[in-house]
Design brief:
Layout lengths: L3 H11 L16 E9 L9 E10 L2 E11 L8 H7 L3 H4 L5 H12 L4 E3 L2 H16 L7 E3 H10 L12 H8 L9 H21 L17
Parallel strand pairs: 1-4, 4-5
Antiparallel strand pairs: 1-2, 2-3
Helix pairs in contact: 6-8
């Protein structure tokens, strides 16, 4: 697999639409964007994005007034299992925009800011597949995975063999954050942003999250 930094260098030269070269420029100081996608399934090669949401973070503030939320219309029919997860029916998504029309505004919203997410690799892979067809590059943005920040604060000094719980629910609980309705792209992006701000503050103050000796089993699912 080609490292992301190597892809970034290649795409910086091979970008198809020069008007998107700003993606390779650093974003404003201490600004980030938390993102989340809801999809028709978990197959990165064939499933499609149906909602995409992002919210900006500036320092320790989450800028809820600076949000991006779009409903997208998939090319294939919705699977019953997907509908049970995100509660969007075929009729709902048919009112959405074409993904091709979503990308210009999304890319300008994100710019060169680092991306923050939970299970971020999946969301970025789904976006990359589409953006690559749109302007000939994948997202060059730095990526910050909140579960890794959480692991460092809670389990970074744990002895070998310590069982970890890195679920979305566990992170919210340990950080004392509210649980909003999940599998809603904006709510998930907002909760992820709250996690990021809280974890940055803990690290800045040198505070670790209390850990029980007999922690729960490893589970990376929402």
């Amino acid at each position: 697999m080609i490292p992301r930094w190597a892809k970034r260098l290649f795409h910086q030269v091979s970008i198809g639409d020069q008007s998107y070269r700003f993606m390779f420029e650093k974003g404003p100081p201490d600004e980030f964007v938390a993102i989340d996608c809801e999809t028709t399934g978990l197959d990165r090669k064939k499933d499609e994005i149906i909602t995409i949401a992002a919210v900006k973070i500036r320092g320790d503030r989450i800028l809820t007034s600076e949000r991006f939320v779009r409903l997208a219309r998939p090319e294939s029919a919705m699977a019953a299992d997907a509908i049970k997860v995100h509660h969007l029916r075929q009729a709902d998504v048919e009112a959405g925009e074409r993904l091709y029309d979503v990308w210009p505004e999304f890319l300008h919203f994100v710019g060169g800011r680092p991306l923050v997410g939970y299970f971020l690799e999946f969301d970025v892979a789904m976006i990359d597949r589409n953006v690559l067809r749109f302007i000939g590059i994948e997202l060059p943005n730095p990526m910050i995975e909140v579960s890794e920040l959480y692991y460092e604060r809670k389990y970074g000094d744990a002895p070998p063999g310590t069982e970890c719980d890195l679920t979305f629910r566990a992170i919210l609980k340990d950080l004392g954050l509210p649980t909003l309705s999940q599998h809603d792209a904006f709510n998930d992006a907002l909760m992820t942003a709250m996690m990021f701000v809280a974890l940055r503050d803990l690290k800045r103050r040198g505070v670790r999250i209390e850990r029980k000796r007999d922690g729960p089993r490893v589970d990376l699912a929402h």
